[in-house]
Amino acid sequence: MNTCTTAQRYGTLIGRILLSLIFVISGFKKIVGFAGTAGYMSSKGLPMVQVLLVLTILVELGGGLMILLGWKARWAALAIFLFLIPVTLVFHAFWAVDPAQTQMQFNSFMKNVAIMGGMLYIIAYGAGPLSLDRDSHER
Fold it and tell me: What is the pTM of this model?
């Protein structure tokens, strides 16, 4: 019999909520501000901006909701982890910006690295007992 402490039960739930919020909100904001986001992505020299933006929205909003609900959370965390690698390197290249922007971009870079650590935790341990995955092999 597998028993969880209160901290394990609610800590994983609260952790998933906190980790998912940035992606759910960002994905929604990209839908609402599609043209502006596409323009920003174009300014970074990205090709096929509209296709990449739709994929970004799917990863952020879809993956964020999956982690929030704890449904296929390991797969969602893997998708977000892989997504964050190029996003972090392209959009938060603190080593290649104006010195006035260095600290802000460094902070954003490190925030993404920390979020990637959270995603690795979900990949390794699953969504926890208060999740849609709780009764499946996805634990």
Answer: 0.92
